[in-house]
Amino acid sequence: MQIALSQIRAVHPSIAVRWLRNWWLKEFLNLLPERAAEWLSDQGKARLLLIPNEGKVILSLRSSSDVLISSDSIDRNAVSQSAIDQFLRAHQVDPKDTDVGLALPTDRIFSRQLRLPSEVIGAIDTIIKQDLTKKTPFKQHDIYSDYVALPDSGKILVHQWIVQRQYVEEALLELKIDLEKLSFVTSDAAKTNEPAPFINLSRKANAPNLWLRKLTLALSCSAVLLAIVAGGLKYWTQQREMDSLGAEIAVKNKKAQQVRLLIDQLQSKKSALLQLRLQRREMPGLSDLWEEVTRILPTHTWLTELRLSETANKREAQVTLSGFSGAAPSLVGIVDDSSLFFDAALTSPIAFDPGEGRERFSLQARVRMPEPKVAAR
Predict the structure, then answer these.
(1) Chain-wide mean pLDDT for the chain?
(2) Confidence tier at 205 by pLDDT (50, 70, 90)
(3) Is 356 helix (H, G, I), strand (E, B) or coil?
(4) How is domain 2-207 classified at the CATH fold level?
(5) pTM score over 0.85
(6) How far apart are CA 60 and CA 69, in angstroms?
(7) How far apart are CA 75 and CA 58, in angstroms?
(8) By the 8 A CB rule, do 138 and 162 touch?
(9) Which pLDDT does position 62 carry in this prediction?
(10) What would you measure as the largest C-alpha separation in the chain, in angstroms?
(11) Helix 210-282 vs helix 16-30: angle between axes, to the nearest 10 degrees?
């Protein structure tokens, strides 16, 4: 397992102590020469990566800081433990101080991701094992697995890699290498935007020396004391700022409530105005009435006056029609049958006009108004 402590120290408070310990240790080792620092931290082991490739095996030797020392290609049938030891000694590297790794094709290594809450950092090993058992068909005794946990927007993003033991054993059998000699398994190609697969098979090789643990503990204790002092000062400063902010928030809260009340009132008026506009927009106009009257009146009838007027009821309007007709009494029924008018009635007696040779009439009708609609907010 690898956890970027320097990156996720803000994810959960329990990581702070471990981060301080690593920071003190790093600063201490930076004071020493590189070789001495590598020896003290037990990180001075070189890495030899075996990469099978089309009948050959590439031997890639890298330092503990991942600097390429040498690379060579030998025939796959010629690979053996003695050949590997000979290659290392030729570059003045002790085989006992070298971690040997195997690069498998990407399709042999199963990768998956888990996003966990930061609160589970202390039980992340158990959670990942349980999730692997429940959500994948793999069995613990049939696989090798490892993972790296990284921070991601306040949570923990876990990249886990799984390889079946039979793939590793088959590759080692072909290379004539014992499983005990293998320290890790990786991939021959990796995605640039994700951590490279790395399955550690040798946990003990990465364990720090006992004296270094004691030194780390001492440094951690001093760091804790400094952290307590710094934390106390920071808490006191923050408490003062919070008290000041609390008073300001109380004042702003009252103003915000007043603004909220004004906004609600404006919203209510806006809704009423919008509803009125919608009603006005859907109300038939004078041109609509004229077109309807022209359509329904018979050819022996013509108008001298068409007047549209509002009534006390905002939901009603009234139209007045005056003119001459060859059959004035029938106009009441004609107007009532219209889809736009109703409740038609004569407003004056029908009188025959000798000059026009037709009957003079005057009638009123109410205009059908549209049903009210709720304005969309």
Answers:
(1) 80
(2) very low
(3) coil
(4) Nucleotidyltransferase; domain 5 (3.30.420)
(5) no
(6) 8
(7) 9
(8) yes
(9) 86
(10) 136
(11) 130
pLDDT over threshold 90, residue 324: yes
pLDDT for the residue 120: 81
**Amino acid making up residue 167:** Y
Scanning the chain, the segments in alpha helix (DSSP H) are 5-8, 16-30, 34-40, 81-90, 124-135, 165-175, 210-282, 286-296, 331-336
Please give the radius of gyration of the chain, using alpha carbons only, rounded to the nearest integer: 45
| pLDDT above 50 (res 137) | yes
Q: 136: which 2 tokens?
A: 């994948």
CATH 3.30.420 domain span(s) along the chain: 2-207
The phi and psi torsions of 196 (rounded to 5 degrees) equal -70, 140
> What is the distance between the alpha carbons of residues 329 and 345, in angstroms, rounded to a whole number?
10
Kindly list the distances between the CA atom of residue 131 and the CA atoms of 128, 191, 211, in Å, as whole numbers in the listed order: 5, 24, 36
Map residue 52 onto helix, strand or coil.
Answer: strand
pLDDT digits (tens, 9 = 90+) for 39-57: 555 555 788 989 888 888 8
pLDDT in tens, 282-297: 567 778 888 888 888 8
CATH number of 286-367: 3.30.70
Alpha carbon distances (Å) from 366 to 68, 283, 303: 97, 13, 18
Nearest partner of 344 among 319, 374, 373, judged by Cα: 319
Mean pLDDT for 171-189 is 86
**Cα 327 from Cα 302, distance rounded (Å):** 11
Q: Are 305 and 324 in contact (CB under 8 A)?
A: no
| Rounded distance between C-alpha atoms, residue 253 and residue 236, angstroms | 25
Q: Are 35 and 41 in contact (CB under 8 A)?
A: no
Nearest to 163 by CA among 155, 171, 175: 171
d(CA 159, CA 150): 8
Instruction: Inform me whether the pLDDT recorded for 355 exceeds 60.
Output: yes
Residues of the chain with CATH 3.30.70: 286-367
d(CA 125, CA 146): 10
